[in-house]
C-alpha cells in the first residue's frame, strides 16, 4: 500500500517542531515506518524540503514558508500550500491514497474531482465560523473523500461530513515517561495566547499560593497581551509565591517538568479539538485541571486523572465533582489535589498513565490509522460515517 501523507509547507517537520499538527505528522510518520515491512507500506511525505523524516520527502521549496516574513504578512504563504497539494495530486498514479494534514483539508477539497484515489483528511481543529460550515457543506457528498476526527467533539459543528472514524492522537510513553511521585509545583505549557488561559493560571497560582512554572511558545501578535496580562503580574515586587515563565523550550525539554509537577493547569477558553499536551502530562503521571471545553471530557476522567470544571454558570457542560465554576472552580480543584493524602494522590498519578495506555498511546494511534488506510482503500464501506467504538470518556 503506497501512501502519500501531505503535510504543511509552513513548518519543517522534525522532532523539534512545536506546532501541534506538525508534531502529529512527525509522530505518525516516524512510527508508521516501523510497520512498513510487516504491513507492506510505502510512505512518502509531501512537506517542506528541510523536514527531517525517515521517508522520502517531496517538496516545492527547501525552506518552510514561515521563514519568509513577507509571505506571512501578505498571506501568500497559502500559495505554497496549494503548490504542494498540486504536486502531490499530480503524482496520483504513484499512490493508493492520500492522507491530508494541511489545516483541516479545506485547501485540498477543491482538487477532489480531479483525483481518482481516496483522500483521507484528518481534522485537526474545531471549525467555529459560519463561512467554514457553509464551505464544508459543498463537499458533504464527495464520494472519494473521507474524514477522521481527532475527537468526537469536532463533529458537532459539521455532523454531516463523510466521517470514517475518530482516532485520538497518541503520545510516546517511552519518551514521556511515567514518574510515580511528581513534585510540588503547578505547570502550564502552550502557545502564549489568550485562548490558552495563561493569565488565569497566574491568577489561580496567586490565590492558592503555590509555585508555578509556565512554558510558552511566543506569538508576535499577542506580545502586548502577554506583557500586560501575564508578565506585569508575574514581575510584581514582593511576590508571595514564585511564578516563572520560560519561552521557547523545545517539546522534549518539557518532559522533566511534566514528570516533576504536582498538576497541569490548562484553563482553555475555546473549544479544544484534542489537546495533545494533556496526554503528555498524563503519560508522565501528572493530573490535569481544566475547563470542560471541546474534547476535554473525552480525555480527562473527572476525579480520576484530574478535575474538569465548568467555565461559567452560563456554560454547564457536565455534572462534575467540582461544583463551582470559572476561576473559583479551578481554585477548588487545585486545592483538592494539594490536600489529597499521599496514597490517593499517587493513585491518581497511576490512573493518569493507565488512561493513556488504554486510549492515547502512539502505538494505538498508528494501528488505527493503518486500519483506516485499509478501509478507504477498500472503498470506506466498513466504517463509513460512523464511530464503532465507545469514546474514551464513556469507558
UniProtKB/TrEMBL annotation:
The family database entries (Gene3D superfamilies) matched by this protein are listed as: Glycogen Phosphorylase B
**Where does the Glycosyl transferase family domain lie?**
185-314
The record ties this protein, via Pfam families, to: Glycos_transf_1 (PF00534)
| Entry's Gene Ontology molecular function annotations | glycosyltransferase activity
Kindly give the InterPro entries that the UniProt entry links to this protein. Glyco_trans_1
Q: Please identify the protein, giving its name as recorded.
A: Glycosyl transferase family 1 domain-containing protein
Organism of provenance: Candidatus Daviesbacteria bacterium RIFCSPHIGHO2_02_FULL_43_12
Amino acid at each position: 500500500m503506497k501512501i502519500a501523507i501531505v503535510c504543511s509547507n509552513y513548518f519543517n517537520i522534525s522532532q523539534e517542531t512545536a506546532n501541534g499538527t506538525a508534531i502529529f505528522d512527525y509522530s505518525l510518520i516516524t512510527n508508521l515506518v516501523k510497520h512498513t515491512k510487516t504491513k507492506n507500506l510505502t510512505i512518502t511525505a509531501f512537506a517542506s524540503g528541510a523536514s527531517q523524516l525517515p521517508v522520502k520527502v517531496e517538496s516545492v521549496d527547501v525552506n518552510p514558508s514561515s521563514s519568509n516574513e513577507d509571505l506571512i504578512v501578505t498571506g501568500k504563504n497559502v500559495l505554497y500550500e496549494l503548490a504542494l497539494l498540486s504536486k502531490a495530486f499530480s503524482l496520483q498514479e504513484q499512490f493508493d491514497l492520500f492522507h491530508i494534514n494541511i489545516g483541516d483539508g479545506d485547501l485540498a477539497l477543491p482538487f477532489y474531482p480531479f483525483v481518482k484515489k481516496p483522500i483521507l483528511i484528518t481534522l485537526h481543529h474545531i471549525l467555529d465560523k459560519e463561512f467554514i460550515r457553509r464551505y464544508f457543506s459543498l463537499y458533504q457528498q464527495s464520494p472519494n473523500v473521507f474524514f477522521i476526527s481527532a475527537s468526537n467533539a469536532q463533529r458537532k459543528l459539521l455532523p454531516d461530513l463523510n466521517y470514517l472514524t475518530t482516532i485520538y492522537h497518541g503520545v510516546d510513553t517511552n519518551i514521556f515517561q511515567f514518574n510515580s511521585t511528581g513534585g510540588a509545583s503547578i505547570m502550564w505549557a502552550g502557545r502564549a495566547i489568550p485562548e490558552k488561559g495563561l493569565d488565569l493560571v497566574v491568577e489561580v497560582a496567586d490565590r492558592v499560593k503555590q509555585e508555578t512554572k509556565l512554558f510558552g511558545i511566543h506569538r508576535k501578535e499577542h506580545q502586548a497581551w502577554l506583557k500586560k496580562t501575564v508578565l506585569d503580574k508575574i514581575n510584581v515586587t514582593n511576590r508571595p509565591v514564585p511564578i516563572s515563565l520560560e519561552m521557547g523550550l523545545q517539546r522534549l525539554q518539557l518532559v522533566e517538568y511534566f514528570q516533576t509537577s504536582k498538576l497541569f493547569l490548562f484553563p482553555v477558553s475555546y473549544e479544544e479539538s484534542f489537546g495533545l499536551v494533556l496526554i503528555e502530562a498524563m503519560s508522565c503521571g501528572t493530573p490535569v485541571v481544566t475547563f470542560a471545553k471541546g474534547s476535554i471530557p473525552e480525555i480527562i476522567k473527572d476525579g480520576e486523572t484530574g478535575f474538569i470544571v465548568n467555565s461559567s454558570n452560563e456554560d454547564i457542560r457536565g455534572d462534575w465533582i467540582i461544583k463551582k465554576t470559572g476561576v473559583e472552580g479551578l481554585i477548588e480543584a487545585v486545592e483538592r489535589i494539594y490536600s489529597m493524602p499521599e496514597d490517593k494522590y499517587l493513585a491518581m498519578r497511576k490512573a493518569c498513565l493507565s488512561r493513556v495506555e488504554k486510549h492515547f498511546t502512539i502505538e494505538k494511534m498508528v494501528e488505527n490509522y493503518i486500519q483506516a488506510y485499509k478501509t478507504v482503500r477498500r472503498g470506506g464501506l466498513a466504517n463509513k460515517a460512523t464511530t464503532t467504538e465507545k469514546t474514551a470518556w464513556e469507558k
